[in-house]
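Record type: ASSEMBLY
Status: queued
Input:
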Amino acid sequence: MAQKFITRAEDYSKWYNELVNRADLAEHSDVRGCMVIKPYGYAIWEKMRDILDAKFKETGHQNAYFPLFIPKSYLSKEASHVDGFAKECAVVTHYRLKNAEDGSGLIVDPSAKLEEELIVRPTSETIIWNSYKKWIQSYRDLPILINQWANVVRWEMRTRLFLRTTEFLWQEGHTAHATSKEAISEAEQMLDVYEDFAQNYMSMPVIKGRKTESERFAGAEDTLCIEAMMQDGKALQAGTSHFLGQNFAKAFEVKFTDKEGKLEYVWATSWGVSTRLMGALIMTHSDDEGLVLPPALAPIQVVAIPIYRTEEELTSISEKMKGLALKLKSKNISFKFDDDDQRRPGWKFSEYESKGVPIRLAMGPRDLENGKIEIARRDTKAKEIIDFDGLDSYIEKLLSEIQLNLFQRASEFRSLNTKKIDSYAEFKIEIEKGGFFLAHWDGTAETEAKIKEETQATIRCIALDQEEEEGLCMFSGKPSVGRVIFAKAY
Amino acid sequence: MAQKFITRAEDYSKWYNELVNRADLAEHSDVRGCMVIKPYGYAIWEKMRDILDAKFKETGHQNAYFPLFIPKSYLSKEASHVDGFAKECAVVTHYRLKNAEDGSGLIVDPSAKLEEELIVRPTSETIIWNSYKKWIQSYRDLPILINQWANVVRWEMRTRLFLRTTEFLWQEGHTAHATSKEAISEAEQMLDVYEDFAQNYMSMPVIKGRKTESERFAGAEDTLCIEAMMQDGKALQAGTSHFLGQNFAKAFEVKFTDKEGKLEYVWATSWGVSTRLMGALIMTHSDDEGLVLPPALAPIQVVAIPIYRTEEELTSISEKMKGLALKLKSKNISFKFDDDDQRRPGWKFSEYESKGVPIRLAMGPRDLENGKIEIARRDTKAKEIIDFDGLDSYIEKLLSEIQLNLFQRASEFRSLNTKKIDSYAEFKIEIEKGGFFLAHWDGTAETEAKIKEETQATIRCIALDQEEEEGLCMFSGKPSVGRVIFAKAY
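Status: finished
Output:
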């Protein structure tokens, strides 16, 4: 009957690829590294976007839109930025095609060569700060609190749907401030917004932390991040918020007159999350039967499937469902009654299970007679028969319970797979099993690089709530003031 | 005091450019032909997008996302499509930059040349139908009703903000159907959605019509459109909906098995509106003082400005405004109380006038004492003093009235500037004054081309409600069955 899918235990990576496919979320396009986000996947992304967008607006940000193309020379203006972003990128060199004279088809018109090549934006700091230069003269023009929803392109050699694609969708906040203090607290505020979103909407526990110098965003003074643990024990960086200091203001000569009439460089932040969050969502909750979605992000929160033999039975069930639909609508709960007669109930059960619909209802003629209905939750797969009366309130409560349960389950998993470790020999063995490792580190980039080379593990972050604890670096034996988080990462 | 701006009568084109700037809607970027959409302009576009998006979903469409890049060879697959779109476009030829060996800076890495060039999408029919090929096997897979919100690039030599830019934002619907009839009615339905949006939200009267063969979308069997008249009498094509027949299905070999088990090519539509609508909105309603916005699209619908000498007066006015804000919020009316003490009331009056805020309130200490408030509407500039009690209901009614008044005013303007014309000699004189001209045409592309060459006027459309009327083509004297609409156009 049901197709046999690979399990997480058998091959986590294949399980992920199959799941993205069977839940109809996305697929590879014929354009190397670019994905097609299918309607069901896009509907989840839209929910993420709308929730985040409302939070950005609540914190005083406005959306705007800047050009897709960045002149090549802009990338060179900020010295460390260019190293990070000017390498693997899509380069537009011409602006016209023409028919080949030999009739062989379309060719690039050599006479339409651009004087300066354009880069398809890998991130927009440079093009945006080039605009801010015109917008900012005085302290009265500050702060500028802008966000952009956009597509960006980073030429990736090895791609995976949602996790690493050449083109992806994201939001990028770019703010300008009169003081360092204000910019730092903006960067911290946006990290809190990301944490709130991850934990309360994605039901995904995250650690707020700071990147080490070698893991910082190219052009940042400080990179804050939220790190999550996937079911295979690997870390996934789910969002970053950068304090950019005056680096971009200096690169683009953006100065303002302060209240005392002095000319100063502007302070900056940038912060972003991307369609990568879809990958994080999948790998936090889903199981061998398919996608598991937290209710806050489920395009369909409740599906009802009628089980019937006669048209009459279907009509009676449909009547009941119409009433329920209205009640759920008034509670803002999205509901689908699937009475498609081309598909059998068993097929539907498995379909909605694959797609992670949080609650499934099933009603047959006997249920109807008894005023009962079967209700199944996707997260625990628990089923029960309950009274049809009061069902809408029951559903409302259950959705909150599922939302919370997913968070708790993921938190417990993370706790179980987070260990303090002091011996590097032990670390080399343990890291292969996955998980987060709290270890002392001497604070040098050399040690960090060597550990990475030998184990592929990186310092995911220095937690913002890191406990002070004197110790010795597990690698070099040099002194350390607290433990940092090591893990292999996506 | 107030800066002197150019009037519409003096120079309509300059007036438009200045208005886009003073209302803070958009600006040219340093990247040739690409614009920066500033927060206030983007907020209007967001409103347009959200309203349209809800209408697309109500009519059964889902959003998805397809790659930004199109392999060059795809463009050649549909014979007439390639002529329309494969000419002026951004061509990605390389995927890496490197530091020049002579230290002169970043250069394109010649070893990173793509085997096949990628085109930045000018429209997505080809890349989408290449996906649909994989999605469609049977009639059970149909219809596919998908929309995409995206950026597109068409290399334009002469650009104007919103009206014609190299990169612009739009939505493109792409649907697949089992029958010609169903596809045609989809194309018609979406034209109705556009008409509804233009008339009831933008307050912009439009004519629904059909393009002549020479004005059709490259690859379409039939192009439906909505045409609006701008204040200078020129036409603006505000949206198009295409019946694509089986052209793209044939180009990409997309067949399905019908209910009888026969293999058939799939039928298609595509339809779109873009940030060009921002230009249409501006040129339909705005006046010499600035932008005029229909309330349905205004980011701020009501602004209140306090007039005070003492802090105490400001506090009392603020108290009143807090109560009003709550009431308006419950009616879903967006409200801003501008108590910025850095700006004088006169400056604020002119600022919100420039930005087209539909209703402006002003309250001073005497108003407060008398329980009165001044209310000014942006469309007619009428001011009156009314009771503060019941103000929220008054505002609600007034917003509807403004919405309707703008539509009526634009409709009257269009009626006044639409004429039947029978003599080509007269037409050549009249067309220079602007307006729509209803004239007989012999139905040939030759006549159409000659009239365009001699007058720059084009056939905007053959109205769907064209009256049958026998006549003689104004140009050739050959018989005609009804009048078509000629105009100069943006």
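Annotation: Chain B has a mean pLDDT of 96.
Annotation: Residues 124 and 169 of chain B are 13 Å apart (CA to CA).
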